Structure formats: structure tokens, C-alpha cells
Amino acid sequence: MSKNLLDNISNPSDLRKLNPEQLPKLAKELRDFIIDIVATKEGHLGASLGVVELTIALHYLFDTPNDLLVWDVGHQAYGHKILTDRKNIFHTNRQFGGIAGFPSRTESEYDTFGVGHSSTSISAALGMAIASNLKNETEKHHIAVIGDASIASGMAFEALNHAGVSKANLLIILNDNAIGIDPSVGAVKEYLTKVKSDKRLAAQNNIIKALNFDYSGPIDGHNIPKLLSEIERLKTVQGPKFLHVITTKGKGLQKAEEDQVTYHAPGKFDKISGERKQKEENPYTKYQDVFGKTIVELAEKNDKIVGITPAMLTGSSLKFLMNKFPKRTFDVGIAEQHAVTLAAGMATQGLVPFCNIYSTFLQRAYDQVIHDVALQNLPVIFCLDRAGLVGEDGATHHGIFDLAYLRCIPNLIIFAPRNEIELRNILYTAQTGLQHPIAIRYPRGYGNIIDWQKPFEDIEIGKGVCLQKGEKAAILSVGTIASNISEALDLVPNLCCFSHYDMRFINPLDEKLLHTVFKEHTTIITLEDGTVKGGFGSAILEFASAYNYKNIIKTIGIPDDFIQHGSIQKLQHKLGLDARSLANIFQFYS
Q: Which CATH number is 6-264's, of 3.40.309.10, 3.40.50.970, 2.40.50.140, 3.60.110.10?
């Protein structure tokens, strides 16, 4: 038998055979295992390192999967996955065809709820607890693990408000490390900081106790004996309970503890020193940095510009504006709904709000986009980062629905730049006095133009452009997928007779250009990196129907399905959106 405890543990039933005195050694081995894999395979590091002891304690004391454990977001669930029958395949984490980077109900019975967006754990666990009561399964335990950044979200507070008056056998564990992806912000964060330094505040003036929870803590989340003792006690307490646990994000790897923002997802690094591996220098610029640097340029000349982000200050590159104009930059925490209506309020007073939200996260503020912005026709500038396929984060993070869910909203302009210069110019155009809200969607990662910082030029709203003129089929595209089309047209000589139009605007469509295209071409092919149902292609079909055109129309995009994780290149190939696959499709129509 191996001297390493982890070698002999596949699932929690194996874990429970250990003596409590052996668990600290197991924690060291589990932490090393995570570091070894993530160092070469990449992924989310700091969050999982911070909850190793808590993860062990929960699976040791509760009868998972019969007792239901819900992780919030899932960044911190690597240890959980390793201890629940996935140790031997953990090296495939986030890889194409491998296990998912977040808990997934289709992957394991121990993953009781699929996550990826924050602040859902309390609602889900409460729903499970109420169901257990209705089924007379009163012996079941229900545990939600949520971070201090996530618990400040409105949805988490809504769930706390409900849970506090329920009879649910629910344990909420606050994993408090004062950081999400960026440092936590807001009054709740400041309150938790005071609680950690003043135990009298925790005992007397406690907002959790005010919501009818049995509150305990704060306790050291890396002290296994204390964790075991307190969780064992809470198992005997009826009703809603709340355990406040203090942890260190990145615990066990010095570099990850010192630079918690970078080591949230550090890429490849040396597992001993923690030093990040130097990537080959990319001569191009990330779209995020094109946005971030451009908005600083604009803000230097337009003092009405403000920037807003819901907890994605670094990821969105709004950090550049924060560094230059901290009083005009607002990280509102994980609160997408608030971010949108805050921007709307600012717009009523003549400010020019750039509200930067990942495409997939804007889904959480759909009502606010419709009622608080579009209905009132307020000129909020939405910058939808991570549009299209995003890669290894998978189905919860792919920004493939925005064209479909935004296209039906009146007053809302929708623009998809095909390159960095177009992004720069639409940002400039948007702040010069648009009379409508606008959504600008762009992808994650690098562009393909080195010299993109050219003098600003206005973009005419609703006007597309011709990139290649031919006599046969016409290809209509929006966004950066245009580069795949250009590459595909270059692969096969006879495709030079195709036309290629970058429509740029999904709303309003350039109908003058479309009439010309439909009259000059028998076959029309539409291409987008969003869902093919309800998106850009659907808009072209609606145009053809409205004007009774009988052309052959082929729509290409993301199929009507949830797309799993993997590199963007592999996903595009699988979905037939890479240049070679597109060339084969185009040849069929030649």
C-alpha cells in the first residue's frame, strides 16, 4: 500500500476510513496534487487551494452524495472533484473531451448542481432542502459553500431572506478570503473585514443572525480539528445555519498567496517555485486591452465618460481606466442587474456610461436591459466582452446567445467589430452623442492587427461594408468570424468569385446593402459565432421574407445546443466554423 494517503482514496467512502489525525497529511497531498496538474494543464488554482481542508472536512463528516453539497461558481471545486471518483482523470480537466472545469450534474452524482455563474448555491441548496422536507427525508443535510464576493450578490441575499424563515435543514458556509477574481468590494466586504478583527461584532451586531440563522464563526478554515468540531456540532442544529470560515486563497503556494489575482488562473507555472512560465510573446493585442486602452484615450478628452463592471475589473481591462480615473470607474461587485440600472441612472444625468459585462453574464440582467435602458431609450454603451466561443470555461461561459436575446429589443443598436480597429472606432462613435443604447460584442483573446491605434474615425450607424466582390454566392458575416471566412476564400482558387460582406450591425440592418446583395446573388450564406437560432442568420431570413425574396439562404453558426469546453480552435473545427470546414461548405455552393 502506498505511503501517500491520496493514492488509496477514490471517493468519500475511502476518505472516511482515515483517522482525523491523518487528515492534515491528506490536505498536504491533495494540495500538491492540484498544483502538479494545474501547473501543466492550466485552470483555476487559487480558489481550490484555499478550500482544501474545508473540502476534506465536508466529505469526511457528511454522507455525500446522499447529503447534498453545492459549490458556488465552482472555481474552488477541484479538490471536490479529485475526492469524488475523478482523481485519475483530473488531468483532463477543462481539456477538449475531458472533465469540466466546474461541477456538472451530467458528470457525477456528487455534483448536485451545475454551476459556473456565481451566487446560485444558496437558492439551489434551499430548494433541495425544501424538497427533502416535502419528501419526509428529514435526515438529509444540505450544504452550500459560497465566497465572500458571491454572497454580496442580490440573488444570494434573496435566498438568505427566504432561507431565514424556512424550516430547511440548510448549512451555508461562507468561504471568506476577501477576494473573488479581483479583490472583493462593497459594504458587505467591509463588514466582514470588521467581523474578522472584532469577535464582539460577530456575536452582537450580526447581519446573518438578523436573518434568523444560527451563526457561528469566524473560524480558521485551514485548522482541520476546528472545522471538524464545529461542523459536527452544526450537524445537530435544526433549521438554517451559517458557518463563517476564514481562508487564504492560494494557500500552500507562496506565489499564489502573494498574487491572488494573477494566480486565480495563472496559466502554466513551475510547481516548485510557483513562477509562471513565460509564454511566447504575442505581437498582437487582446481585444480586452484594445477596449481598456481606448476608453482611457476617450476619457482623457471626454470627462463625462464613466466605466462600470460587475467584478471583472482585470478581466475586462477596465483596470486601465481605474488606474487613470479611479473616481470615474466603478466595480460594483457581482451584481449585473445593479450594474445595468446604475448605468441607466447615470445616463439620465448626462454621463456616458460604458458598462462592460461578459456576454454570458449580461443574461443575468436581461430585464434591466429591456426596462431600465431600452424602454427609456437611454444611451448606455454595453461592451460585451467574451462574445462567441470562449474556450475551456465551457457552456456556462460561451457568449453565444447575445445576438439572439438582444436582437428583439427595440431601440438597441447591436454592433460586432471584425477587428481591433473597428472596435476602437465604434467605441469612439458611441461616446459622441448616440441617441440610443448600443451593445458592442467582441471576443476573448488576441486580434490580428499590430498597428491598431490609428486616428479615430466615425462609423456610420447601420452601414455594412463589402470586403470582396464576386458574381456567385454572397457571404454575409458579423464580427471576427470574418477572418475565418477570408482564410477559407483564400484556400480554394475558385472561391474568388464569391462576395463577402461584413454587415457589422445586427440592428439596424443595412437594408439598402441587403437589397443590392439579394438582387445580385442567387445564393446567400450567413455566418456568425452565435447561436444559429434567432441570431444574425434569422435576421436575414426575416428580411428576405419581408421583401418576398426567393434566394437560396444558408445559415451557419453555433448549433442549437450547449457547447462544451475545449480550445476555441478545436471547438470551431468540431462545429465546422474553422477555415477548412468553411471552404468545403463554400465549394458546395460554387
A: 3.40.50.970
Read off the pLDDT of residues 226-246 as tens digits, 9 standing for 90 and up: 999 999 999 999 999 999 999
Tell me the three cell numbers of residue 9.
482514496
CATH top class, domain 465-588: alpha beta
Residue 369 confidence (pLDDT)? 98
Q: Strand 413-415: give its sheet, edge to edge.
A: 329-331, 305-309, 352-358, 381-385, 438-441, 413-415, 505-507
465: Cβ contacts below 8 Å, ≥ 6 apart: 501, 502, 504
Which architecture, in CATH terms, is 287-441? 3-Layer(aba) Sandwich (3.40)
Residues 466, 522: Cα–Cα separation, whole Å: 17
Residues annotated as catalytic (active site), given as ranges: 249, 336, 364
What is d(CA 446, CA 448) in angstroms, rounded to the nearest whole number? 7
User: What's the pLDDT score for residue 202?
Assistant: 65
Angle between helices 23-41 and 52-61 (to 10 degrees): 130
- Give me the residue spans of the domains in the chain: 6-264, 287-441, 465-588
Contact 383, 354 (CB under 8 A): yes
